[in-house]
Structures are given as structure tokens and as C-alpha cells.
Amino acid sequence: MSISTNSLSSAYSSSGYAATTENNTNLSMNDFFELLVAELQNQSMLDPVDSSEFIGQMAQFSVLSQMNELSSVCQMSYAISLLGKKASVSSTDTSGSTKTVTGTVENVTYQSGSPCIEIDGTEYSLSDLLKVENN
Questions:
Q1: Is there a smaller number of Cβ atoms within 10 Å at the N or the C end of the chain?
Q2: Is 53 helix (H, G, I), strand (E, B) or coil?
Q3: Are the CB atoms for 101 and 88 separated by under 8 Å?
């Protein structure tokens, strides 16, 4: 599970932490706990942070983690439900022209964090899917 840090960078940099502004940087649960420990170690003795804030942050992170996992499971379930069905996908060849390929979904694979469907021996991302028909 990972979360994009694009929206988190400004929050941590305003707290005095060195934050990067790289795009597509991910924050894992381990990174979250490291930030939490660093925040606890560097808090002022005269102005301690309320522990309920930490619990709230952990709960939010947990919910986001579970939502991400649920989304992945739903995508995979949807891809599996396409097995044996006639599907049309958009395909771009090496010359840059786009064509539509139609055929029966033969296999489902999981690559680079997302499910892919196989039509006529070629794998396509679910984002390329245009139409699904029952046989």
C-alpha cells in the first residue's frame, strides 16, 4: 500500500521536516511511522503534540490503506469476470495509430500493480477496455 506524497509535502515541510517535492513519490506505512517517531522526538517540551492527533492520523492512514487494497481487489475481480466474454480494447501500434481490437478474453494477469486482460495472445490494460459483450 502506498500513498502519493504530493499533498503531504507541504504539511510536513511546514512542521520543520525536510520534504521532497518529487512527483510520483510514495509514502508507505513504514515511512508514516518513521515520520511519527521523528515528530515525537523533535516536539517541544513546552508545547507537546496531543496524542489524539497521532491516533487520528494513524486511523486515517489505515482507512486509506484499506481503501487502496479494496480498489485493487475490485479491479482484479472485474478483470476475472471478463474471462470468456467478448471485449473490445483500444490499441496503439508503433506508428502511433490507434485501432480497436475485438476478441474473447482468454487470460487475466497482474502486472505493475494492475490487472491486464489477454485477447488473441496480446495483453491489454483494463484502462484500454472500450466494450464488453456476453457471448
A1: C
A2: helix
A3: yes
Write the CB contacts of 133 (distance below 8 Å, at least 6 apart in sequence): 85, 86, 87
Burial of 52 (0-12, 13-18, 19+ CB in 10 A): exposed
Tell me if 110 sits within 8 A of 116, measured CB to CB. yes
- Nearest residue to 115 (alpha-carbon basis) of 84, 77, 86: 77
Burial classification of residue 26, based on how many CB atoms lie within 10 Å of its CB (0-12 exposed, 13-18 middle, 19 or more buried): exposed
User: 98 vs 114, 115, 131, 132, CA distance in Å?
Assistant: 22, 21, 16, 19
